[in-house]
Design brief:
Pfam families: SWC7 (PF17330). Keywords: Signal. InterPro entries: SWR1_Swc7. This protein is mostly helical and about 120 residues long. The protein has one domain. It contains six helices and no strands. It is globular. The protein starts with 5 loop residues before the first helix and ends with a helix. About 25% of the residues are buried.
């Protein structure tokens, strides 16, 4: 998943979190804590992810992923998260926090300076 933009990873994690909350609320036999550690990736998650405008804009190649591929992507997020966050328990929430921090860093170090430079050029 590291080859995809951080905002796309964040979107996937957000969709996963919402789906796990929905499943835990609907089916009382499911525990949200365990769903956050081992999320259920189903057709609903696939549909929400592949049809989202953010995916269409930043990673159009992901619009045609299969459920199996999406599950592998989620698994890869957890593997990468385990490597980066070795001192924490890996859940959808801790992964989202990690990718959120990466996205902020990307905005601060790359995108904002680039926009600032473009504005300066336009104003000259």
């Amino acid at each position: 998943m590291s080859t995809f933009p951080h905002n796309v990873a964040l979107l996937l994690l957000q969709i996963l979190l919402q789906r796990q909350q929905y499943l835990a609320h609907r089916d009382k036999s499911l525990q949200l804590k365990s769903l956050l550690k081992e999320p259920i990736v189903d057709a609903q998650v696939l549909e929400q992810f592949t049809s989202h405008k953010l995916v269409k804009l930043y990673s159009p190649e992901l619009q045609d992923v299969t459920l199996r591929t999406l599950r592998a992507m989620v698994g890869q997020l957890f593997v990468e998260g385990a490597e980066e966050l070795s001192d924490q328990q890996i859940t959808v929430i801790t992964l989202a926090n990690s990718y959120y921090n990466k996205r902020i860093q990307q905005l601060e170090t790359q995108l904002l300076p680039q926009l600032k430079q473009e504005l300066v050029q336009l104003l000259q």
